[in-house]
Amino acid sequence: xxxxxxxxxxxxxxxxxxxxxxxxxxxxxxxxxxxxxxxxxxxxxxxxxxxxxxxxxxxxxxxxxxxxxxxxxxxxxxxxxxxxxxxxxxxxxxxxxxxxxxxxxxxxxxxxxxxxxxxxxxxxxxxxxxxxxxxxxxxxxxxxxxxxxxxxxxxxxxxxxxxxxxxxxxxxxxxxxxxxxxxxxxxxxxxxxxxxxxxxxxxxxxxxxxxxxxxxxxxxxxxxxxxxxxxxxxxxxxxxxxxxxxxxxxxxxxxxxxxxxxxxxxxxxxxxxxxxxxxxxxxxxxxx
Length: 288
What we know:
alpha+beta
């Protein structure tokens, strides 16, 4: 009888814990959706010969997706690499192999925000402090650095032509700096910063952000009435050092980005972000 009671108590506690994990609210008390995630049993990495690894794993789309992300690349470029970093346990969701935190409490007031980390060559999108999208990016090369700071999403196009080369077709392009022509889009990821200042993404990631982020609202051809989704590009890349993610083979937490770091890079822009968010809400309410 005692064993049955004990099992019932454990079941009730587990149910309460499970409910508590899903029962999150923002600063206004509104419920916030929390994605159910699958965490790997262990998080460690090793260096592998690319051809040898592919010979055993080239039909497993889940493992390939993780391997591409960890090495900041895509399928076409991955197979040409001499050696790559591979997680020992690839049973988890992609979020656990990339450096951004799953939750940032200081972002709860912000409906939507996107971060691009230059040092780690990754991006993350948050809704009210909860991570919703993350993946690899290849940002601006040494002589064409991606500008850092606060930006807002402007206009978007499913397909457009690069201003640097009219033979470059850019899919799921979303501009964040209109005068400089900087934005994110799908394009080849060689596995290091290689763009002419834009933020290159895998196609799936570019499409997700394309659909998720908000465009600006124009008052006229010269003036913006409502800005889009805030985007913060931060940090610097050491072009003289080996690829940073190679460190994962000896230290799986080498690239981790803490909540405190996200809070630190956001704080100087927080009042501006909240002001523009309030402006967008007022605009949307006026249209009802």
